[in-house]
């Protein structure tokens, strides 16, 4: 089973890029299933219903979120029925802490967890949360999106659960790391990177972020309007022997 897992999708216009290119990407890389992190789609923060439906229409089988899960309050109205795994260590009953996905005769459990280092959100311990969940999971394959800031926390989580799940993929920093590996048959990367405008700072308008650093004054940022897009992620080849490989595409989109 070959799975394309796309890193944090930033901005609505990135959906237009995926609409135009995702099918050809799936054919080129012989992809069976597409997953993504969707917490930054709508104006760079959260996931509005219309954009959730657009991603679904592309055939994306499952989505994970992060610290901006509830940044768009409308998600509360549809998350219970959605093919979304929200962070399992958030203290809420809204949404699914495990998203089960069927592929042929196999069941995949998709799990999302938030790191606690540098994220000012009240959270349960991600280590203890997954330890408690594992005995209850009924699936052939388990994939975890660890949405966190600190490399050390992600790496510690990986070594703690190596051999117990099939893949642990990092998200949140929007900067792709070059450390994809397999240990004890568990695939890992610290961060998958982002899908969004290339000339940007983590997907946001460059000038606005520079001014924030120079002045210390907080101003609401906006998604960069650059027309060169970068698609980052990983390809997981899950079977008896699990494998992981980097995925990266640069796409020019002058019409956007």
What's a concise summary of this model?
This protein is α/β, with parallel strands linked by helices and 256 residues long. The chain has helices spanning 13-29, 49-57, 75-78, 126-133, 151-161, 206-215; strands spanning 2-6, 8-9, 33-37, 62-64, 84-85, 99-103, 106-114, 141-147, 167-171, 181-183, 186-189, 194-197, 228-237, 243-252. The chain contains six helices and 14 strands.
How many angstroms does the end-to-end distance come to? 34 Å
Provide the gyration radius in Å.
Answer: 17 Å
Low-confidence stretches: none
Beta-strand percentage?
A: 25-35%
The backbone outline, from C-alpha atoms, is globular
Report the structural category. Answer: alpha/beta
The helix content is: 10-25%
Elements, N to C (H/E): EEHEHEHEEEHEHEEEEHEE
Q: What's the pLDDT, averaged over the residues?
A: 95
Tally of strands:
14
The helix count comes to 6
> Mind describing the biggest β-sheet?
8 strands, mixed
């Amino acid at each position: 089973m070959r799975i394309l897992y796309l890193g944090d999708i930033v901005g609505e216009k990135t959906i237009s890029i995926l609409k135009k290119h995702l099918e050809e990407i799936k054919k080129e890389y012989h992809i069976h299933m597409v997953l993504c992190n969707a917490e930054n789609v709508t104006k760079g923060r959260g996931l509005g219903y219309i954009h959730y439906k657009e991603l679904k229409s592309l055939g994306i089988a499952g989505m994970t979120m992060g610290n901006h899960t509830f940044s768009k309050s409308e998600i509360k109205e549809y998350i219970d029925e959605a093919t979304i795994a929200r962070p399992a260590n958030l203290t809420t009953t809204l949404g699914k802490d495990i998203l089960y996905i069927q592929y042929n005769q196999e069941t995949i459990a998709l799990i999302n967890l938030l790191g606690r280092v540098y994220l000012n959100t009240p959270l349960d311990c991600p280590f203890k949360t997954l330890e408690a969940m594992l005995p209850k999971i009924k699936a052939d394959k388990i994939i975890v999106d660890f949405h966190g800031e600190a490399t050390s926390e992600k790496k510690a989580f990986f070594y703690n659960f190596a051999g117990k799940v099939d893949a642990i993929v990092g998200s949140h920093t929007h900067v792709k790391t070059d450390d994809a590996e397999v240990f004890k048959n568990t695939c890992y990367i610290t961060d998958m990177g982002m899908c969004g405008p290339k000339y940007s700072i983590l997907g946001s308008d460059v000038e606005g972020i520079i001014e924030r650093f120079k002045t210390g004054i907080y101003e609401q940022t906006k998604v960069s309007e650059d027309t060169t897009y970068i698609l980052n992620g990983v390809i997981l080849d899950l079977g008896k022997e699990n494998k992981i490989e980097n995925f990266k595409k640069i796409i020019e989109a002058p019409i956007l």
